[in-house]
Amino acid sequence: MMEEVTVNPQMAAVGGQQILLSTAVAACTTPIKLNCVLPRHDVFHIALVIHDYQATDRAIAAIANPISFCKVSSLVILNTTSETKELKDAQARDWLQLYQVQRPDEVDLKYGDEGFQQLLKSNVDAIYVIVPTESQRSYGIAVLEAGKHVLLKDPVSTSFDSFRDQLDCARKVGKFVQFSTMFVHHHRVKTFLDCVLRENFGCIE
Predict the structure, then answer these.
(1) How confident is the model at residue 51 (pLDDT cuts 50, 70, 90)?
(2) Pairing state of beta strands 126-130 and 149-152?
(3) Which residues contact 31 (CB under 8 A, 6 or more apart)?
(4) CA–CA gap between residue 57 and residue 54 (Å, rounded)
(5) In this structure, what DSSP letter does residue 4 have?
(6) Is 70 exceeded by the pLDDT of residue 186?
């Protein structure tokens, strides 16, 4: 029997609880009833975890300028050769500006494994993991076990077995695993929601 998964269209708050919804495969097997997804006024905090300053990804700029209530609030650089915190911070701000992250001076900066562990204890809602393929599983599971949603770089950043392990972990903790591609199509999703929820069709249940 084929395993049932839930495919969701957008980020939303359901039942008063912050959850992550997307066009990617979600790690929840119980269908969620959407009682008229309306705009939220509180912020959904997303953190970025990158291997080093060479990390590149087209979804970062989309995440940094979303149509919804998302905000890049933290950045962890796992590997940096800079000797002083001042230089590390300057390079991190430059990297954030390169990807058009709004208000880079307000983004909390952390470094190395110690910084990653601190991030896991923070109040961010989701963490976007951009690391080499061989490291992706361990970071992804660590994020899930910390009670946060996980964004993965793209389908080629993980093997099937690795992805399956993360889905299993996500089910246990009640969080979502998804690909960042959803942000690339965010504005199309907004157009759809505007038409369906606010114009001709009314609420979706």
Answers:
(1) very high
(2) parallel
(3) 6
(4) 10
(5) P
(6) no
Cα dihedral 172→141→65→22 (10° resolution): -40
Burial class (CB in 10 A: 0-12, 13-18, 19+), 14: middle
Three-state DSSP class for 89? helix
Residue type, 92: A
- Residue 135, pLDDT score: 87
106-135 pLDDT, tens digit per residue, is 999 999 999 999 999 999 999 999 988 888
Structural element, H or E, at residue 104 = none
Token pair belonging to 122: 């923070």
Handedness of CA 31, 32, 33, 34 (dihedral sign): negative
pLDDT of residue 202: 58
In this structure, the chain runs to a length of: 205
List pLDDT tens digits, range 84-107: 999 999 999 999 988 888 888 999
DSSP codes of every residue in 137-191: HHHHHHHHHTT-EEEES-GGGS-HHHHHHHHHHHHHHT--EEETHHHHTHHHHHH
Residue 179 backbone phi and psi in degrees, to 5: -95, 150
